[in-house]
Amino acid sequence: MPILNILLLILAAVVGAALGYFIRQQIIAKREKELESELSRIDERLSEKERELELKSREEVQRQREKLESQFDNRRRDLRQEEERLDKRRESQDSQTERVNNRERELGKRQSSLDLQRNDMEKQKAEQAAELERISSLTRDEAKEQLLAAVEKDARDDMARAIRQIEDEAKEEGERRARKILVSSMQRIASQQVSDYAVTVVPIPSDDMKGRIIGRNGRNIRAFEQASGVDVVVDDTPEAVTISSFDPARREIARRSLTKLIQDGRIHPAHIEKVIADARDEVDTIIKEEGESAAYEAGVPGLHPEILRLLGRLKFRTSYGQDQNAHAIESSLLAGAIAAELGANVEVAKAGALLHDLGKAVDHEVEGTHAAIGAEIARRYGIGPAICNCIASHHQEVEPDSVEAVIVDVSDAISGARPGARRESLDQYIKRVRALEEIANSFDGVDHSYALQAGREVRIMVTPEKVDDLSAIRLSKNVARKIEESMQYPGQVKVTVIRETRAVDYAK
After folding, report:
1. Alpha-carbon gap, residue 259 to 257, rounded angstroms
2. Residues whose CB is less than 8 angstroms from the CB of residue 240 and which lie 6 or more positions away in sequence, other chains included
3. What is the DSSP string of 67-136?
4. Could you give the CA distance from residue 104 to residue 111 in angstroms, rounded to a whole number?
């Protein structure tokens, strides 16, 4: 019984396996048929796509072909038009060439006619020259030499007379124009006269204020002098205190500070320092305003702020008593007037004259001459080379490169040499006058000499037996040259040599 069951199970398994295999084969066959039908449908769709792409490509090729044909047609049309223009131009050039050829033929005919006429004229000229030689008994070369000699003599005489006349007229006209330009320039510039001070007097309400200024054991006056850098002189002068300093800016700061302290009444070291600091700020503001005012008055715009500040510092800088700020403005106006009269560059001349003494604002702080210092400062702050040369050459330390530099030198001399512009101390005046007389007396043949017109003229009396007329002329030149080499002076010094012969007799 169990064996039978096992066999039945095995038979059932075999039958099941066979039936499963058969069913699987049927499913696979059915799937293969579906795949084949699907592939056929895909092939049909691909063939349709290929036909559509082929149609599109044919249409695109057709469009490109039509476009290229249109472009070719346009190009052919342009080429035909260009050929027509070239044909017309060629025809025009051919006609012009024909006209030129005709003109050349006409010119050739005229040239041949002119050659015949020239030959006839030369023949007639030769016959006339031969006739003249026969009549004058002179050859052609001899007559030519005599004529040239006569013409040359007349020409030389006329030329000499013309040269002398032109020289005289030029000298007279030059002197007249120079006087006119200088006088006109000086008349148009009006400036105040100044004085040379080294001290400033501050008025006080009463002599009791002197004790408060000095303070206990002198502490107030010491604090004031230390903070301001000046000397305060409290002496027996009634109702006045004297401030002494070589620096005008310091004197101005000290004057303002002391005036405020006297008005306020509070005089002690702490307050003194505050008042002096405030006064220093006020003076700095004044310096800035003075620089701007000077540039505006002289008509020189566009200067660097540092240049304007240094220009304003010249307000508190004097030379021989002359205010350097006013001197710079006056020189600038003079230079502008002279440059306008001479046709030079007015802007360069005015700027160079305004800034020519710029170095004096810092010459006590920097080594070197004020002309070189001023030129270097101007160059550092973007001033042009032409103006820098005007500044550097106004004392002949470097060669002037332009007529404007010479005008600046002249305007500086005019501003400094005009009467009243500068003052000299009595000792300097006496030394200069004595030096002029000593120079004149050092030459042989001089009897005596006098310095006149505040040292602007030297009048020399010579011994007539030792000095003749020509020697007197040489003596005046030699004395003038020695004065130029050995002395410094504003303006010019006139040297007059007088030679006098007297014959004396007595009737008895």
Report:
1. 5
2. 201, 202, 203, 204
3. HHHHHHHHHHHHHHHHHHHHHHHHHHHHHHHHHHHHHHHHHHHHHHHHHHHHHHHHHHHHHHHHHHHHHH
4. 10
List the chain pLDDT tens, one digit each, 508 residues.
567 778 778 888 888 788 888 888 888 888 888 888 888 888 788 888 888 888 888 888 888 888 888 888 888 888 888 888 888 888 888 888 888 888 888 888 888 888 888 888 888 877 777 777 677 666 767 767 776 777 776 776 667 667 667 777 777 776 666 656 655 555 455 444 444 455 678 888 887 888 888 888 888 888 888 888 888 888 777 888 888 876 777 888 888 888 888 888 888 888 888 888 898 898 888 888 888 888 888 888 888 888 888 888 888 777 655 678 788 888 888 888 888 888 888 898 888 888 888 888 876 667 778 888 888 888 888 888 888 998 888 888 888 888 888 888 888 888 776 554 454 454 566 677 788 888 989 998 898 887 876 677 888 989 888 888 888 888 988 999 898 888 876 667 889 998 877 777 778 7
Helix (H) or strand (E) holding 279: helix 269-298
CA contacts within 13 A on the Cβ side of 285: 6
Query: Is residue 419 classed as helix, strand or coil in its secondary structure?
Result: coil
49: number of CA atoms within 13 Å, CB side? 6
Where do we find the tokens 């059932």? 12
**DSSP string across 306-343:** HHHHHHHHGGG-EETTEEHHHHHHHHHHHHHHHHHHHT
The answer to whether 320 touches 385, Cβ cutoff 8 Å, is: no
Task: Tell me the CA distances in angstroms from 65 to 75, 77, 278, 323, one per residue in order.
Answer: 15, 18, 95, 96
Measured distance CA(355)–CA(303) in Å, rounded: 10
Tokens of 144: 């030519």
Q: Return phi, psi of residue 498, to 5°.
A: -115, 125
pTM reported for the whole predicted model: 0.46
> Could you give the dihedral angle defined by the CA atoms of residues 157, 162, 167 and 168, in that order, rounded to the nearest 10 degrees?
100
What one-character-per-residue DSSP string does 434-466 give? HHHHHHHHTSTTEEEEEEETTTTEEEEEE-TTT
Listed in sequence order, the residues at least 6 apart from 409 whose beta carbon sits closer than 8 Å to its beta carbon are: 393, 394, 395, 396, 400
Q: What are the start-end ranges of the E strands in 156-303?
A: 199-203, 231-233, 240-244
| Residue 337 token pair | 């007037």
Rounded to a whole number, what is the distance in angstroms from the first to the last CA of the chain? 218
| CA separation for the pair 132, 129 (Å, rounded) | 5
Is residue 318 within 8 Å of residue 357, measured between CB atoms?
Answer: no
* Listed residue (155, 152, 132) closest to 142, CA to CA: 132
